[in-house]
Every structure is written in C-alpha cells, then in structure tokens.
Amino acid sequence: MKRRYGWPVLALGLALSAGAISQGSLDPKQAAQRAAGATKGGKVSVLAVWGGNELENFRSVVKPFEEVTGIKVEYEGTRDLNAVLTTRVQGGNAPDIAALPGPAQLEQFVQGGKVVALNSILDMNAMRRDYAAGWLDLGSSGGKLYGVFTGVSLKGLIWYNPKQYTGPKAPKTWNELSAWARSQAQQGKTPWCLGVESGAASGWVGTDWIENILLRQSGPQTYDRWYQGKLAWTSPEVKSAFQTFGAVASDPKMVFGGPTTVLTTNFGDAGTPLFSGPPGCYLHHQATFIADFFTKNKPGVKAGEDFDFFGFPDFNTRYQGAIEAGGDNFGMFRDTPQARALLKYLLTPEAQAIWVKTGQVLSPNKRVPASVYPSALSRRAAGIIAGAKAVRFDASDLMPASMNEAFWKSILNYVQNPAKLDDILSGLEAVRKQAYK
Asked: 23-154+325-393: what CATH class?
C-alpha cells in the first residue's frame, strides 16, 4: 500500500465536556467485562517503549481488565521498538499488540500485510462517535483502520517553576524569551533544562524542539513538505531550525550542565533541576506527559503551584496558533480473543480516564469528562488542542523509520559538534533521497 503523506491537519476534537459521560459512571471493571464478553483467561502480549512511570501507569490501566477477565497482560518494553518488532514479525513471533510512536512505523507493517485490519473487530459507528475523524484517519490505510490512539500529548510547551521563574510567563515571541534567557546567562544563571538520553531512541527530545521551531518559523505548509520528504534537509528552513535549537543545546551558558550533560541526562529527569534551591535551570521544553515525571521525581510538587507552562512562543506572526501533538498508535499483529478484548477495553472512556488521571496523557476519546483531568493545567492543555488553529502530528513520527532514526542520531551529533551542522544536514539529505523512494 502507498504510504499516506497527505494528511496535513489533524482535527483532534478533544471534547472536554460536551457529550461526555459523568465521572461517577466511569467503572473500568464494567468496561472490561463489556470489552471481553465471554472471553475469559489466557494471555495477551503487548510490546511498547514504556518504562518507569509510563509503564507503571499502563499497568494501572490494565489492572481492572486483568482482575475481571482473568486475562494476563504480558508486557515487553524496549526503546528500540522498530528493530525489535521487525525482528519479531520476521521471525513469526510477533506480539499480539504493539504501541508504535506514530503512523509511519505502523504503515510499514501494514504494507507488508502484517497488521490486522480493525474494521470488523471494532464497532466503527461507536469509534466515529467517540473519536474525531483526524485520529481515525491517522490510523487508516487504504480505507481500513489499522491503528488506534488511546492517549495523546500536547507538545511544544515551556515548563517553569512559578516560585523561581521571574521571566515572561506568556512571551509573544521567541526573541522576547531569548532576550530574558541571555540576560540570565550573563548573570551566571542557567536558563534552560535539557536532556536527550532515551536508550536506543536517544535524540528524540531534540527532534521535538526542531519540529516546533520549524512549524513556527516556516509555517504548517513547509512543515508538511518536510515530513513528506519534499523539502531538502539542507534547505534554509531546516538549517535555521537546527541553529535556533543549537543556540540553546550547545551553549554551556544556556543549558544546565552544558552539552555533555544534555547528552547523558534522561529525558524524564531533565526537568528536575527546576525544583532545586537555588534552581539549576528555569525553563524546560517538553510535552504534557512530563508533569507525571515532575510529581514522581519530586514528591510533593503540585501542578499550578510548583510547575506551570506556556506555549512555545511564535517566531512569525503569520503562523500563530499552530501546535504539535503526538501519541502512541496501537496495532494488532495477532488476532486472538484476548487481543480483541484488551484493545476494545483500552479504547473505552473508562480505561482512558485512568490514564488521564495520571497526568501522563490527554484522551482522544470525546466521552472522557473534563472532571477526570488531575489539574487545571491538564484541562488547559486539552483545551489548547481543541482550540488550535492548526494542529500537526509529530513530524518525525510521520517520517519513514530510517529517516526518523537518522534524525534522532543527528541531534546527538549536532549537540556534540555544532560546527559540523552542514555535514550533518548533508547526511540527513542523503538518507531522505533513499527513504522516500
């Protein structure tokens, strides 16, 4: 099947209250019973990238399902998901369900006939009722649904500690925020927190930076051409986005610990210095899921009191209101009664409400009520997605796997060797010419 590179705007439609069921009626055990029907016992295997807090939250979601159905959810985690899944599929040992970081990776397996179409498994009328068309389209290929989203993140947020941060809390432009950051650096204070370590996926944090910069510097249409493979990596637009990122990531006065610490700090721990006294840094760029890491890494910190956020500032007023989102795309690789039951359960508002309460994700299911969001911050984030003028899915997750992985690695090379940017971009351009054939 032909990969779909033509879906530019993602109409998320995250409904915060309209048409939602009440919090009091959210019974995950009843939802699990309905999803499983007569299926009892057995096991279902799930492959994903989660570890630590993320895995703990997933286990809390599936716990009611396991208790009611007797079905054991066997989880396997890996940061090198594409390589592990490819090996498993080729070896005839595919997991029942895999949660991939985006549509492009799943589409590769769809093209090989390795993923189960869900149209006859799920109630498609209910899916169209509960999910915006954009989410269903992102999981579809050739008119069939193969991937479904159970939790999403709003990207491009700048986090800060209100008790420590004295800079602009709603900067209108990147120049305004950068001027404040430079003033702090001149006083010997480090403005930015950053960590790009993530095992085999190290570097993805930097790709989020560049995606948000390019989206706001050059606009949604250029962003679309870029992930579609129609814009050269050596173009002025891409180079400018890298240089803007590098002005933070490769400057030891701008980022906590300097570039070496950036490369060795895990993404989940990078924001912790916001809460030290005195703070190690004042600003941290990350998606909505980071709030869960804040509360787990620093017990006692509270949303709104100890951490808050503002949106990534604009570079060009022509592109105001453009935002980026991401999420895990669940695909079924082995059709079993247990796999069907789990997937149906994960798509219910009851299951997603558990996930939402952790602060890790926003729900794409319109029937999840606003009242289950753990803070005003998470409700505000969901509202930003719902009210955005233009929403783009994570660009690297829409690129072919080889392009995505090369992008990750380029971040590591660039942070370590910013003077070699032209060579790094030329290398990425060579990958583009092969990846999009």
From this structure: alpha beta
